[in-house]
Amino acid sequence: MKVKSYLMLCILISLVLACSPEISNTEEANDPMTTEPDSPTTIDAGPTETGTIIVDSGDNALLGDLFLISADASGSQKLLDSGDNGYQHFGYADWLPDGSKIVFSALMPPWEIMTAKNDGSNLQSVPNTVGGEYPTWSPEGDRIVFSVWNDGDADIFIINRDGSGLINLTENFSANALDPSWSPDGKQIAFFAAEAGEDYEIFTIMVEGSFTAQLTDNKMNDWAPDWSPNGNEIAFLHSTDQDYAEVHVIDLDTGNISERTTAFGYPDLSADPGLCWMPDGERLVIISQGDVYMSRYDGGVIFDKIWEGKTYTSFPSCH
Prior knowledge:
Number of domains: 1
Radius of gyration: 18 Å
Order of helices and strands: HEEEEEEEEEEEEEEEEEEEEEEEE
CATH class: Mainly Beta
Mean pLDDT: 85
CATH topology: Neuraminidase
CATH architecture: 6 Propeller
Number of helices: 1
Helix content: under 10%
Number of strands: 24
Shape: globular
Strand order of the largest sheet: 3-2-1-24
Largest sheet: 4 strands, antiparallel
CATH superfamily: TolB, C-terminal domain
């Protein structure tokens, strides 16, 4: 599916299914259920020495499960099956910085934020997050940032991991704000946003909400930002006028924007929803037409396929 169409589908899904009149408490999930891998080639739960990526993948945009993938393509396994746990979709996962837990969105509907251990056990709802999508841990792991569609508007919220201390970070920001990404130093949140009918651009806001900066300004959609491990760059997806997306990286010191997908050959390879930096800050994980690729430098940008996913594979998180 072409990226612009897929982006609009994601937004439509959010509007139709994620909306809730107000954010309210959620009941705790049932006892956790450990899922079996899809194939005999598996990896140990949690990060490995080579790195582990978690993605959501499914044959339907509203039916997806969470998978673990070894960064060296040596193995994969299904971590959490949404249907087995009474949900339609698990997605938008993010690793706790120490790798011991994950946070993700679960669709009943509506959406809500949930956490689990890195082996898929101890599945729990985060109270006060009904409608929540795109969750990301703070660097300290004590708070979660996420976005919510509410009465046709999208805002970004910060909450303590136990569901207390809910704050609307973009209450005074006029544009719809989505897909927050916490900076490594814990001081800023990157996100994409747009006024109704306008294209999406990349913004940052201080965690206390005192200052907002616009990082991109063009006539195409810029979305799915992710901070580099050192905090000096932000990678994001940029829609083109050929109706597919490229990966761009902005240097926060200079404002210069570089392309990271010039080796991609449209239509065979086109960046799909989400990307993430590996901890070394040199490699990027990219989704293309349901498959997961590792990009690296070796006399140029090289792309290695590390996993063949299902049609709707999106939003990787690296560790």
